[in-house]
């Protein structure tokens, strides 16, 4: 794909570049290998016996129930093929180079797939089958194909974010990226079906409901958790609905229009999930999703109407206000993830549960389905992203002697560790340091995005007495019914 001179100039100062793709490829490949071997239950086996077993691995006939696992293996290798191809071809031309790269990446993807499946023989209860090899090989090929189709265009689109200077430009980019991710998430794990008998089977299994059973038992902690989580998912969609196709000089779209558009968007996404076998189609999601859209639109309207008025107000006052909100939100997190506070005083049980905290990272996620694991990752990130955002907003208004990013990260990390260790004393909770890793990802994304936008605001608002690096440093550049807070 040709790259014009203006794009080449941008590529020298904007991300992602070749080094970023290489780092991402290495990290994702390592995660794929690790995830394929979790929970790391090694079993002694002679190499000759392993070879013989590998020769006899079966080809399984997959039903609709197992289709999501096959698709999960395919999806796991798409980023591998895409990022390794990008490492060698981004900003580069030439058919011969492209052909040689494609051949090498294809060969390495297939070799990696075979090696992973072969290694799984030593790590029961992992299932080894020809289906997984085919799925992973197809995933690698798909990633390569996607790079040739839209790789350079996607790279330039990503660079438009790092090159943007105004808060409006950056927010528009982030909201578009989030909505695109939400659409893809809505059809995961891609076990699609249009066969009436399979849709009827889905209904018989309780995956198509008009009112979720948790809402029939009154207001409980589980109900609040579901409502808040589902609403949080659609908050950024509300911001996009309020500002999409509106110039910076126009007013925010009226709330009535946002309500109608939000209902349409949630209805379409929920309707699509009807044809995804493993997903639950719940009419209650229309209410929580539309509620999230309306709240997001209202918050966007308030933010845009007041952002130019804060220059004349004491910045320290706003800083302490954001910090107080961060404290309140930390208390909310404690209430959600530590209730019902049935603390045990049994020292033996406490010691046993404390040892369980140090279990193999991500092994607890292996017990469920791949989609359930991904759902838990996203939910924990969504719950902790606001904490990072609130801390970043407070630091942007206050002068601190500690490096701002370190301050925000340390406070949020302390809250996450405190909550996870608190679960040790509560038998109805599962304490796992894996949760801290996932939550750290959530609040780090919240810190970085808020820092990026706030730095842009300081460029727009010339009267602000703070420099852009005052937020996070000079170079800092985001339901499944079986999930319940009691299980986290």
Structural commentary:
The protein has 17 helices and 2 strands. It has 2 domains: 5-163, no CATH class; 167-487, no CATH class. With 488 residues, the protein is mainly alpha-helical. Helix 9 (221-243) packs across helix 10. It is 67% helix and 1% strand. The longest helix has 34 residues, at 130-163. Strands 1-2 form a two-stranded parallel ribbon. The two termini are 46 Å apart. It has helices at 5-11, 18-37, 47-55, 67-89, 95-119, 130-163, 167-187, 196-204, 221-243, 255-272, 284-306, 315-338, 347-357, 363-366, 370-397, 404-422, 433-460; strands at 208-209, 281-282.
The oligomeric state of the chains shown is single chain
Instruction: Give helix % range.
Output: 55-70%
Number of domains: 2
Number of helices: 17
Unreliable stretches, pLDDT < 50, 5 or more residues?
A: 1-12, 457-487
The coarse silhouette is globular
| DSSP, total strands | 2
Draw up the topology in text.
Layout lengths: L4 H7 L6 H20 L9 H9 L11 H23 L5 H25 L10 H34 L3 H21 L8 H9 L3 E2 L11 H23 L11 H18 L8 E2 L1 H23 L8 H24 L8 H11 L5 H4 L3 H28 L6 H19 L10 H28 L28
Parallel strand pairs: 1-2
Descriptive tags:
488 residues; mainly alpha; 2 domains
Summarize the structure.
This protein has 488 residues and is an all-alpha fold. It has helices at residues 5-11, 18-37, 47-55, 67-89, 95-119, 130-163, 167-187, 196-204, 221-243, 255-272, 284-306, 315-338, 347-357, 363-366, 370-397, 404-422, 433-460; strands spanning 208-209, 281-282. The chain has 17 helices and two strands.
């Amino acid at each position: 794909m040709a790259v014009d001179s203006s794009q080449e100039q941008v590529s020298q100062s904007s991300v992602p570049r070749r080094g970023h793709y290489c780092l991402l490829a290495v990290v994702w490949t390592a995660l794929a290998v690790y995830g394929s071997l979790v929970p790391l239950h090694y079993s002694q086996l002679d190499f000759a016996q392993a070879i013989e077993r590998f020769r006899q691995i079966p080809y399984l006939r997959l039903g609709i129930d197992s289709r999501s696992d096959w698709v999960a293996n395919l999806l796991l290798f798409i980023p591998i093929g895409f990022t390794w191809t990008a490492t060698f071809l981004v900003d580069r031309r030439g058919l011969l180079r492209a052909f040689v790269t494609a051949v090498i990446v294809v060969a390495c993807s297939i070799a990696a797939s075979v090696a992973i499946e072969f290694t799984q023989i030593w790590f029961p209860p992992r299932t080894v089958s020809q289906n997984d090899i085919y799925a992973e090989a197809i995933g690698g090929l798909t990633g390569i194909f996607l790079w040739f189709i839209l790789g350079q265009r996607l790279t330039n689109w990503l660079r438009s974010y790092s090159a943007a200077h105004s808060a409006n430009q950056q927010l528009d980019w982030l909201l578009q990226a989030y909505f695109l991710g939400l659409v893809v998430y809505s059809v995961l794990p891609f076990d699609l079906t249009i066969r009436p008998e399979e849709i009827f089977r889905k209904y018989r299994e309780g995956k198509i409901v008009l009112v979720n059973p948790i809402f029939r038992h009154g207001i409980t902690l589980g109900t609040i958790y579901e409502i808040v989580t589902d609403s949080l998912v659609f908050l950024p969609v509300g911001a996009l609905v309020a500002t999409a196709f509106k110039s910076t000089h126009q007013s925010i779209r009226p709330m009535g229009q946002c309500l109608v558009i939000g209902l349409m968007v949630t209805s379409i996404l929920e309707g699509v999930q009807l044809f995804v076998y493993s997903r639950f189609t719940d009419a209650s999601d229309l209410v929580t999703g539309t509620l999230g859209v309306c709240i997001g639109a209202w918050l966007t309207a308030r933010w845009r109407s007041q952002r130019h008025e804060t220059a004349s107000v004491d910045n320290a006052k706003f800083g302490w206000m954001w910090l107080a909100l961060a404290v309140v939100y930390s208390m909310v997190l404690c209430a959600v993830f530590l209730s019902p506070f049935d603390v045990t005083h049994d020292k033996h049980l406490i010691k046993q549960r404390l040892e369980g905290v140090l279990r193999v990272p991500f092994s607890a996620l292996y017990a469920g389905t791949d989609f359930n694991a991904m759902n838990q990752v996203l939910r924990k990130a969504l719950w902790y992203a606001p904490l990072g955002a609130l801390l970043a907003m407070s630091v942007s208004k206050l002068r601190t002697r500690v490096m701002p990013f370190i301050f925000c990260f340390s406070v949020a990390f302390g809250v996450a560790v405190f909550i996870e260790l608190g679960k040790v004393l509560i038998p109805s909770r599962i304490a796992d340091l894996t949760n801290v890793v996932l939550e750290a990802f959530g609040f780090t994304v919240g810190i970085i995005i808020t820092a990026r936008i706030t730095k842009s605001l300081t460029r727009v608002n010339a009267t602000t007495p703070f420099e852009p690096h005052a937020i996070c440093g000079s170079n800092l550049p985001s339901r499944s019914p079986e999930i319940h807070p009691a299980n986290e």
